[in-house]
Design a protein that fits this description.
Oligomer: single chain
Distance between the termini: 13 Å
Number of strands: 9
Order of helices and strands: HEHHEHHEHEEEHHEHEEH
CATH architecture: 3-Layer(aba) Sandwich
Number of helices: 10
Largest sheet: 5 strands, parallel
CATH class: Alpha Beta
C-alpha cells in the first residue's frame, strides 16, 4: 500500500503525505476484515458505511477502493488532475465514498445521522467514522459524541487516528486533548485503545464492535504521522507537500525498499 501511495504522489506531486500514511493500516483492516460491502453494487442498501472524516488522508482510502474494485487501479494516476474523480479530499459520487469530507469536524455528525437512519429503517448496517485527533479540537465533533451517546447508537463506531500531530505542529502544544480516552468515556462512549499500525490488534478490536450493547464504540488508534518513512515520521513539513521532485520520489522509494 505504501508503494501504491508513492505511485499517487509520483503522479500528482502533491498531497497530505503524512496523514495518508498514519491511517493506512486502519483502512486496510476495515476493508479486508470488517466492513460489509459490494464493490459491484456500491449503493447496496445493507452495506456498512465508512466515512473518512479526516478527508485529507484520502490517498490511503483511494488505494483500498481501487484494490477492492470500486474503480480501476489505473485511475490512481489521475489524482488531483483536472477532470479526475479523485480529488485531494474524497467527494461524494466516487463509488465507495459515502460523504464529501475534508472540511474537518463534520464527518462524525453525518455518521450519527446514518446510524440513526439504520435504526429507524430497521436496517442491520453499521457505520464507522474515522476522525483525526487534531480534528477533535472542533466543537461539532463533541456535539456529535453527545448525540451518539444520547441515542445509544451501538451501531456507530468512531475510530480516532491519534497521531498527535496536525498541520502546524504537535497537537499537545496547539490544543491538548488529554486525557483523551477518559473524556470520550465521560461523553458516554465505550472506549478501547490500540496501536494503530498493528493490523492484528486492529482486526481483533474492530471485529469485536460494538464494545457495549447500548453505547457507541470509540477506538483510539495511536499512530505516527508519516509512518513507514523515517524522514516523514512526525515531521510537520510533510503534513502537506506540493511540487515533489523526482529526487524526493526516488529517495522515498529507496527508503521503502530498504525496509523489506
Amino acid at each position: 500500500m505504501r508503494r501504491a501511495l508513492l505511485r499517487i504522489f509520483h503522479a500528482c506531486r502533491r498531497g497530505h503525505v503524512g496523514s495518508s500514511l498514519s491511517v493506512l493500516e486502519i483502512v486496510r483492516v476495515l476493508y479486508d476484515d470488517v466492513l460489509r460491502y459490494d464493490s459491484a453494487n456500491p449503493q447496496w442498501e445493507d452495506r456498512d458505511r465508512f466515512i473518512l472524516s479526516k478527508g485529507h488522508g484520502c490517498y490511503a482510502l483511494y488505494v483500498l477502493l481501487a484494490e477492492k474494485g470500486f474503480f480501476p487501479p489505473e485511475e490512481l494516476d489521475t489524482v488531483c488532475r483536472f477532470g479526475s474523480r479523485l480529488a485531494g479530499h474524497p467527494e461524494y459520487g466516487l463509488p465507495g465514498v459515502e460523504a464529501a469530507t475534508g472540511a474537518l469536524g463534520h464527518g462524525l455528525s453525518i455518521g450519527v445521522g446514518m446510524a440513526l437512519a439504520a435504526r429507524m429503517d430497521s436496517r442491520a448496517y453499521r457505520t464507522f467514522v474515522c476522525v483525526g485527533d487534531g480534528e477533535c479540537q472542533e466543537g461539532t465533533v463533541w456535539e456529535a459524541f453527545l448525540s451518539a451517546s444520547k441515542h445509544r447508537l451501538s451501531n456507530l463506531t468512531v475510530i480516532i487516528d491519534s497521531n498527535r500531530a496536525q498541520c502546524a505542529g504537535r497537537t499537545d502544544d496547539i490544543q491538548s486533548l488529554e486525557p483523551f480516552a477518559e473524556k470520550l468515556a465521560a461523553f458516554g462512549l465505550e472506549v478501547r485503545e490500540c496501536d494503530g499500525h498493528n493490523v492484528g490488534e486492529l482486526g481483533r478490536l474492530l471485529k469485536a464492535v460494538p464494545f457495549s450493547c447500548d453505547k457507541p464504540s470509540a477506538l483510539v488508534c495511536h499512530t505516527r504521522k508519516g509512518m513507514g518513512f523515517p524522514r516523514l515520521v512526525d515531521n510537520p513539513d510533510w503534513h502537506h507537500k506540493s511540487r515533489l521532485s523526482d529526487e524526493e520520489i526516488r529517495e522515498l522509494f529507496a527508503e521503502l525498499e530498504a525496509q523489506r
